[in-house]
């Protein structure tokens, strides 16, 4: 939800801190700030994107080799300078930046006020420096450990105390934090994008762990204040994967990255000649997977739509009963989970609060939990019993694109794995796997039509409403296409099962209400054609996504985008690409902030 960076080392901290929060801006960008120590604190805060903070700092050299910085997505308190982090205590000796939510902050704030503390912000975070001020007795680690015991909620914290200014103390509970280990320097950040420019060696903190970082190194303590050793991971990503490479927006870069993302998602996982799939993260539980008699997929947003496509795959081709639930619903209803039910969390960030809570609810009910997650070392990845990483590199744009096609591809692989443990023949498996291997090339074919799709976008850019329609495997695709459009262009769009139109939505159709039909040549192609006729006869304009060769559709549709033929179960992966491009070009033509749409954040780490 927010981005945190801390630096302590031999270099000037300010440029590193600013560079770091710029890389994290996608996590939240309504205000930002930094504090650097050089015998005293230099504090800067600004409302708006980080360029506003840059303007405030311009021309004012900030000396100091220890500092913390923050980019915010407001949860408690409006985006104002007073509410921007870092936050202080009464004495002005303490600086704190925070990612997450302190759920009991009101009670803490009231009792602190009763003891004379004065607050300048509306935030939950501001209670933390005041609590530290109260308990501090010369040892910041002990003080932080004492305060952490008073906090309820989710938090990633970075803290500096003026009496011990050679160190930063960091705490992780419910929000991600990694330590970057450099020669004579340490960097702490919410994720790798802020670190990889300086070091690839990182430590992923676990919930409850507290670290002290200094230019000479680090100490890590567990929840019982015991010093512990942690594994050091080497980050695979190179910096250009985490930065734009010549594209106007991260979203377009990530759309065009999809052939590579699919290759990365399947690499080393297909044993085609035997019709088998291998996930390293499932090795230890491969026999347990045989016993699963039901799979509940929990996810949010785009990940939910990928799960819906997976549901069709798993039931039709693996014979595994599957259902998909919004994680935000699953966590609060009383799901009936049997002893052989597995709960599969799908999450790009691995930090989505609702999906994480759904995993914890499933575990509390004794269910076996699995994950499909992109961010290595993320909380969901570490809390499920076994998981599969997407390996598609960072997805920076708020609108999820390559994650969707990767998630759907991995669900297709999972279908083969479970299917081969059940009824799927080697021949059937080989057919699916051979087709999955061709997906990157087929996506390349679609991407070559980007200019043509941009021209279609120009024709519809002023529409105020869209219906997205599909059947079976592409009912999820319709929902995903609608989400892409609405979240970056702010145009109202709804995804429906095509067969549902006549049960009400058809009443909305007229010449000002275009429809996007995902109608590949599959088992329900003719049904979709009939639905298109219903819309056409009411003067509804139609954009159709269909399989190469289905030229008869041009008689009905106003605009047609062709995708290469593939197996029906894989059509969502191909059909999603023109929908992503259509949404992108409509939003870009309307001058929307494509990568950082209003009101949204890339990783929704609070409810
Ligand atoms: C999709 O474009 C949105 N960014 C959003 O719906 C996202 O898919 C959802 O918040 C889930 O995120 P996750 O995959 O990181 O859990």
Automatic annotation (TrEMBL):
One of its GO terms (biological process) is carbohydrate metabolic process. One of its GO terms (cellular component) is cytosol. Residues 285-424, 456-597 form the SIS domain. The keyword Cytoplasm applies. The active site is at residues 2, 602. Residues 2-216 form the Glutamine amidotransferase type-2 domain. One of its GO terms (molecular function) is glutamine-fructose-6-phosphate transaminase (isomerizing) activity. SUPFAM superfamilies: N-terminal nucleophile aminohydrolases (Ntn hydrolases), SIS domain. NCBIfam families: glmS (TIGR01135), PRK00331.1 (NF001484). PANTHER family: GLUCOSAMINE--FRUCTOSE-6-PHOSPHATE AMINOTRANSFERASE, ISOMERIZING, GLUTAMINE--FRUCTOSE-6-PHOSPHATE TRANSAMINASE (ISOMERIZING). Homodimer. HAMAP family: GlmS. This is Glutamine--fructose-6-phosphate aminotransferase [isomerizing]. It comes from Candidatus Falkowbacteria bacterium RIFOXYA2_FULL_47_19. The gene is glmS.
């Amino acid at each position: 939800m927010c981005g945190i960076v801390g630096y302590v080392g031999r270099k000037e901290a300010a440029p590193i801190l600013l560079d770091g929060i710029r890389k994290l801006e996608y996590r939240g960008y309504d205000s930002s700030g930094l504090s650097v120590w050089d015998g005293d604190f230099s504090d800067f805060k600004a409302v708006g994107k980080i360029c506003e903070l840059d303007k405030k700092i311009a021309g004012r050299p900030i000396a100091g080799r220890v500092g913390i910085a923050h980019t915010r997505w407001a949860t408690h308190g409006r985006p104002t300078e007073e509410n921007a982090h870092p936050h202080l205590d009464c004495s002005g000796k303490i600086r704190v930046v925070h990612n997450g939510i302190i759920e009991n902050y009101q009670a803490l704030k009231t009792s602190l006020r009763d003891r004379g503390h004065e607050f300048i912000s509306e935030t939950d975070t501001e209670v933390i420096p005041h609590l530290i001020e109260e308990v501090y007795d010369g040892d910041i680690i002990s003080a932080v450990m004492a305060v952490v015991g008073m906090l309820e909620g989710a938090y990633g914290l970075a803290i500096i105390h003026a009496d011990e200014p050679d160190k930063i103390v960091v705490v992780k509970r419910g929000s991600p934090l990694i330590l970057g280990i450099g020669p004579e320097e340490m960097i702490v950040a919410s994720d790798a994008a802020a670190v990889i420019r300086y070091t690839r060696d990182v430590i992923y903190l676990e919930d409850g762990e507290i670290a002290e970082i200094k230019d000479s190194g680090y100490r890590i303590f567990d929840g019982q204040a015991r010093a512990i050793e942690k594994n050091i991971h080497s980050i695979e990503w190179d910096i250009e994967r985490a930065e734009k490479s010549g594209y106007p927006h991260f979203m377009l870069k990530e759309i065009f990255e999809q052939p590579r993302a699919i290759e990365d998602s399947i690499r080393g996982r297909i044993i085609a000649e035997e019709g088998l799939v291998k996930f390293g993260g499932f090795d230890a539980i491969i026999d347990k997977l045989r016993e699963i008699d039901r799979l509940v997929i929990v996810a949010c947003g785009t990940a939910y739509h990928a799960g819906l496509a997976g549901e069709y795959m798993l039931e039709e081709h693996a014979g595994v009963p599957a259902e998909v639930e919004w994680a935000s619903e699953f966590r609060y209803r009383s799901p009936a989970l049997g002893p052989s039910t597995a709960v599969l969390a799908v999450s790009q960030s691995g930090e989505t609060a609702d999906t994480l809570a759904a995993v914890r609810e499933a575990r509390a009910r004794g269910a076996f939990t699995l994950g499909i997650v992109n961010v290595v070392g993320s909380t969901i990845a570490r809390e499920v019993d076994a998981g599969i990483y997407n390996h598609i590199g960072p997805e920076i744009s708020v609108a999820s694109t390559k994650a969707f096609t990767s998630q759907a591809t991995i669900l297709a692989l999972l279908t083969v794995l479970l299917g081969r443990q059940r009824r799927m023949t080697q021949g059937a498996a080989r057919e699916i796997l051979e087709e999955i291997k061709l997906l990157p090339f087929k996506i390349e074919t679609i991407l070559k039509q980007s200019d043509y799709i941009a021209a279609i976008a120009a024709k519809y850019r002023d529409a105020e409403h869209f219906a997205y329609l599909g059947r079976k495997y592409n009912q999820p695709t319709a929902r995903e296409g609608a989400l892409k459009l609405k979240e970056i262009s702010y145009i109202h769009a709804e995804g429906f099962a095509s067969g549902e139109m006549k049960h009400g939505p058809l009443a909305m159709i007229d010449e000002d209400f275009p429809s996007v039909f995902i109608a590949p040549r599959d088992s329900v192609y003719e049904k979709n054609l009939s639905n298109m006729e219903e819309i056409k006869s009411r003067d509804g304009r139609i954009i159709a996504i269909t399989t190469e060769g289905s030229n008869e559709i041009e008689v009905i549709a106003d605009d047609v985008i062709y995708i290469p033929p593939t197996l029906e179960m894989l059509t969502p992966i191909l059909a999603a690409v023109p929908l992503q491009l259509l949404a992108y070009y409509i939003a870009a033509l309307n001058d929307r902030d494509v990568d950082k749409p209003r009101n949204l954040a890339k990783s929704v780490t609070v409810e």
